[in-house]
Structure formats: C-alpha cells, structure tokens
Design goal:
The chain is 38% helix and 19% strand. The protein has four helices and three strands, in the order βααββαα. It has helices spanning 6-11, 13-21, 41-48, 53-59; strands at 2-5, 26-30, 33-38. Strand 2 and strand 3 form a beta hairpin. It is elongated. The mean pLDDT is 90.
C-alpha cells in the first residue's frame, strides 16, 4: 500500500481514486503520520460486512458436547 501526502493527494485526487478502484489503496499522511486510507468501494464493502465473532459463533453448527463444559468447582486456595 503506498503512502501519499495529503497535499499531493489533493492535487491528484482523480488518479488516487482511479488507483483505488483498481485495487491499489493509498495511505494519506499529514506531517508524516497516517491520517486516512483511500480504498475502492468494493474493497470497503467487503471489509465493512465482516460479521462479529459473536454472530459467527451463533451461526456455527454446534451440537451438545462440542464445546467444553464450564468448570463449576470453586477455585483452589493458592496459599498466598
């Protein structure tokens, strides 16, 4: 992923967007620090629709006994 300074990105925004559409994302920097990322719309959509871990877990085809049981024993005395 290439880095481009903000002033250069402003001067060549059409080219930066065209590159992003072709899959070449760019990190926009200001004073040498990353400030933003330019992505193509399809890549942004792909990244923004990632389900949460909880949703993935809820959708898993699990059966009883697939996951370990919770330990219900009281904690041991460490003697400290």
């Amino acid at each position: 992923m290439r880095e481009i300074q903000l002033r250069d990105a402003k001067a060549s925004l059409s080219a930066v967007v065209a590159d992003a559409r072709r899959g070449e994302a760019a990190i926009i920097t200001r004073h040498g620090k990353p400030e933003a990322v330019i992505l193509g719309f399809e890549e942004w959509q792909r990244l923004s629709h990632v389900p949460s871990f909880g949703k993935l877990l809820m959708a898993a085809p699990l059966e009883k006994g697939d996951l370990p049981r919770r330990n219900t024993a009281p904690p041991r005395d460490s003697g400290l």
